[in-house]
Amino acid sequence: MEDIIEIAGQKVTTYCFNTVVVGSGAAGMNCAKKLYEYMEQKGVSDPQKRIAVVTAGLPLGASRMSGSDKQTYYKMGTSPDIADSAESFAKSLTAAGCCHGDLALAEGIGSLRSFYNLVEAGVPFPNDNMGTYIGYKTDHDPYERATSAGPKTSKFMSQCLEKIIRRYGVSIHDHQEAVEFITKGRGQDKRIIGLVTICKNQLSDKDLALHVFLAENFVLAAGGPGALYKTSVYPLGQTGIHGIAFKAGLAAENITESQFGLASTKFRWNVSGTYMQVVPRIFSTDADGNDEREFLTDFFPTMSKMTTNIFLKGYQWPFAPQRIENLQSSLIDVIVFNETQKGRRVFMDFLHNPIGNEKMDEFCINDLEPEALDYLKAAGAMQKLPIERLEHMNRPAIDIYKEHDIDLYSEPLEIAVCAQHNNGGFAINKWWESNIKHTFVIGEMAGSHGVKRPGGSALNAGQVGAQRAAEFIVNVYGSDVVSDINIDNEIETIINSINALNNTQTKLTPAIAIAQIQERMTAFGGHIRNIENAQKGIKEAIALFNDINKNGFTVNDKNALIQAVQARHLSLASIASLKAIIELLQAGSGSRGSHLVLSDDGVEIHPDIKDPDTGQTLKFKPENEELRKSIIRIMFDPAGENLFKCESVPVRIAPTDRKVFEPAWSDYRKGTIYQD
């Protein structure tokens, strides 16, 4: 149902639905698909009119624009000769701690159901002539559970699922920039009842083009906080809506656990997998691209050790503090970051093999350590040059760069250590419902991961969460469309807050504010952390947030207004991130996941990696593994210290009760399976 009303001199378009899915990536599209199918199974009339997908831009976001050499989808094993189970799958997800066992088990149980849903939707996962979906090993993976449809796996997933919901007739509302959620009630009775957006392609100097989506249920699938970091491999269109979700009252967990790794910067893309396994040359230059230097050679004793570690970065891609000591693969991330901190630029060169120093032998592929050499032999990748090995192993990995005007046959690839994924997100139960009833969180917005996760498990989690949220909504909350609600006062308040963002008396622009947020998060909330920097960062972040709310911005055009809306909620999200980081550091967490905590009395990173200010050898604090049993939960608290409050919650264990068939069948028929 669509209506147009006038409030505070603005025409406001309102819609009423049963469920609004916010975000159009692979998770959001699957949820819309499953909602339609569950409603149809129950005989609901016109299910397509009860569901809406609301998105800032169909081509945008991590699902559509992110990937790697062969973007991984992590599922239960499908090999005909290697046994697997949901319980074993869950243990892999919880191995590094801070991961709820019930979520991990649900992801395992729902894995193959979700995977074959994608196969039937048309995602081109490869199988052999017996129908076996061949697996391979990915990072933090004890089995060969990984599969891939190539560099664009998640894009294929989104596109195939979108085709289906368009065929179903589900409406997709594109170009909608989220401004704020409308809530009603308090405590356990609090509900999100509406989402206010600006329709970007209708926005003008006189018309804010406000749209309001009212619904009984909301499914948040808008991705990770991609715009928080300066050095980032998140696509430029991936902004996230964490700030407005916090403001609405959603609790978050594990948002300290961002994942970092090496990625190209001209075109944002992970350089994992075969990009590293073909053992390219890695070198640095000055800021102008001159003075080439083989900087890795200063830190490794032999060519074999250095090049084997380059290879291992392929499936040990995420930066991990546990892989630093004794010249392991994550030392490369530290060395690359150290080099860029000197103002130098780092490149991967696929036209040449690695070059050593006078103490090293020349590169010879047969001198690689057995783990690397055996893999390359098995893959038939013993060609003379990295580009030849890459073409043999994975031609699409070359093509993806060519599509973005980067020719690996003629130019090197600039790289840096980048923010890539947030393993945390908003708190959910085993049906992916948040702490606010009727509001569900799926995909990267959901805090379903712990400190570490197997590569590609995020795609599985998004699909399983989408299916479970849809199932719960239809079977518990029903399919009725929300009744029209009087929200005139709330809309007028939001209109006034948007207008207040434009203030010609201030010099602050949205672009400047976002740049400040990103630089601060990369410096103080990135993969190298200490308590003093985080405390300095949060003071600056709160000052910016207060300045925005008091004085607004200089807004010169409609694009700047959209940026102003984004900057306001990003500023709140950055405070939440830094507050959680401080809480974790104060608890004595040490180095874990994908971040390193510096400490004067810690473990030496490498004798030749020193603090540029003091000249002292840098050391890091090892992980406090006892904290794996708990999770930091954070909520917006305007009256609290630093605008947020934190608490430590115990990790939920996986349920172990198993019923025989007849009682389980009875529970299913009665619908008691949806009761906690």
Describe the structure.
The chain is of the alpha+beta class. The chain folds into 3 domains: 2-257 and 423-488, 3-Layer(bba) Sandwich (FAD/NAD(P)-binding domain); 260-419, Flavocytochrome C3, Chain A, domain 1 (Alpha-Beta Complex), CATH 3.90.700; 501-638, Methane Monooxygenase Hydroxylase, Chain G, domain 1, CATH 1.20.58.100. Helix content is 34%, strand content 18%. Strands 1, 2, 3, 6, 7, 8, 9 and 17 form an 8-stranded mixed β-sheet that branches. A hairpin with a 6-residue loop joins strand 7 (176-184) and strand 8. The chain is globular and about 75 Å long.
Give the helix/strand layout.
Layout: E1 2-7, E2 10-22, H1 26-41, E3 51-54, H2 62-65, E4 72-74, H3 86-94, H4 101-109, H5 111-121, E5 146-148, H6 153-168, E6 171-173, E7 176-184, E8 191-199, E9 210-220, H7 242-248, E10 252-253, E11 258-264, E12 269-270, H8 274-277, E13 281-285, H9 303-312, H10 331-341, E14 345-349, H11 370-378, H12 386-402, E15 413-422, E16 425-426, E17 439-441, H13 457-477, H14 488-499, H15 510-524, E18 528-529, H16 531-551, H17 558-586, E19 596-604, E20 619-620, E21 630-636, E22 644-650, H18 661-670
Parallel strand pairs: 2-3, 2-9, 3-6, 9-17, 18-19
Antiparallel strand pairs: 1-2, 4-5, 7-8, 8-9, 10-16, 10-21, 11-12, 11-15, 13-14, 14-15, 19-20, 21-22
Helix pairs in contact: 1-6, 1-13, 3-4, 5-13, 7-17, 15-16, 15-17, 16-17
